[in-house]
Amino acid sequence: MNKNPKYEYPKPIPVKNRKWPDNQLKKAPVWCSVDLRDGNQALPIPMTPEKKLKYFTALVNIGFKEIEVGFPSASQDDFDFTRKLITENHAPKGVRISVLTQARKHLIDRTVESLIGVKEAIIHCYVATSDLHGGIVFDKSREDVKKMSIEGTRMIVKAIEKAGLKNIAYEFSPEEFTDTDIDFAVEVCEAVKEAWGKSEKHNFILNLPATVERRPPYQYADMIEYFISKYKYMSETTISLHAHNDQGCAVAATEMALLAGADRVEGTLFGHGERTGNLDIVTIALNLHSRGIKTNLDFSDMPSIVKIVENASCIPVHQRHPYAGELVFTAFSGSHQDAIRKGLNSRKKAEEFFHLGWKVPYLHIDPADIGRKYERLIRINSQSGKGGAVFILEQDFGIRPPKEMHPEIGDAMQAYADKKKKEITSEELYEIFKKNFIEVKGPYSLDDFHIISEQNKGENVHAKLTVTINGAKHVIEGEGNGPVSAAVHAMKTQKEVIGFIINDFSEQSMGQTADATAVAYVSVKRSSDGKAFYGVGIHSNIEQAALRAVFAALNRAAN
Questions:
Q1: Domain region containing 415
Q2: What is the pLDDT of residues 144-188, one digit of tens each?
Q3: Does the reported pTM lie above 0.70?
Q4: Residues 257 and 118 occupy one common structural domain
Q5: Residue 189 to residues 131, 170, 173: CA-CA distances in angstroms?
Q6: Does 369 lie in the same domain as 463?
Q7: N or C: which terminus of the chain carries fewer CB neighbours within 10 A?
């Protein structure tokens, strides 16, 4: 019987008095995109050269200064693409392309050949250093693995010198670093550094990957802190992270490992990569952005970036993907919608009186930072409430109903949503609003209105109305201190009209010009039970808008 458990908790890293939990990130790391290599090799349909070039250009425009573009010795397509970038000068000054190779002479020679004429580049060599890989895949001892790493590095040095290449940085990855005995990893990396020789910090990179995520995220940070504390050549070395997402913790592990002292990060846009993918650079970079750290990456047009990646990868970005998903800044819940609406409307107050930066309920960054528009923040379905409906009316149509009217709007929207059982578009919401509050069918309609005598030094307005009441036309008259008051007085003289009083009246202007449309909101209280009903009138003339609102409210009260 096998006494070994199938799974067990990873053994802790022997780091003493760990410091990283108390550290605070002050600046962004160096970012390296591996979309065109690690990401591309994991796609069901690898990118065409045309798609790769468009993707490369997008990465440059986002702001990446280091981009791994392929594995030139592994395929003719990767070799040709690398040559195309160099010969056609697609990489601007300050952008280093990176190419991957194994530690084998003929592969190294082919890799170096692909870089002839390059202005600046990184050659990235990897050797798996874990006992699992060395013993099972390579059938080699630790000493054999160390020797392979040293000899591979020396072969790269010779190949670069022979080709006469300048401005070539070296990156070495002890693959499966997080499965490797930590002291052995330090030993191998020091030997590789000595084989490479003296260097400037940015030209020698140790990439310490979580090739397969088996450990909790904090142990990645422990390993990085331990490594840095033991490794002798930190002043000449950049420590790079490369986390995979098998357990869904790549972002967390990377953030913690940065606190532990790493200064470079590899990943892909939206996490494309083998199995559950690579670290998602979009997510981690925008996390740092949300904490006030300048990332030097530009995601201000996220919708366009999503389209480029989806087209190149043939994999859709999930609707709930952090930052990039269509629904990540969208609220369907009524309480969330109401809080977002109030938060957005009170931004100035939050800044002036509470001395807050960006603090809006349920929105941890400003969607405008990444090219998202406010009108899509709130969408309506059967889970939504009055706050969401009012937000859409305000943002999309300029309708700003009084607060006391919001519950009635919510009830009308909810009744429609429960029947439809699907999301309601903003156009549908406006039709619901019109049907229930503006174009209200009922026993009363105003056919004509004109003032017989104007108010003059305290005299009331005298008005004549032509109305239809229960299908019969009537010409009626009334007096009041204004047109609305006169119309109300006239209607109250008719026995067929329900008893009511005006409960509330407000108005607004839609637009900023002299031709702006007037909107009136009138609430009438039904005498029989004291229940209030709002009606809305829209017209170029404010008096006409108010009268229409009165009749809409009366019809709602009478129905």
A1: 334-438
A2: 999 999 999 999 999 999 999 999 999 999 999 999 999 999 999
A3: yes
A4: yes
A5: 16, 12, 9
A6: no
A7: N
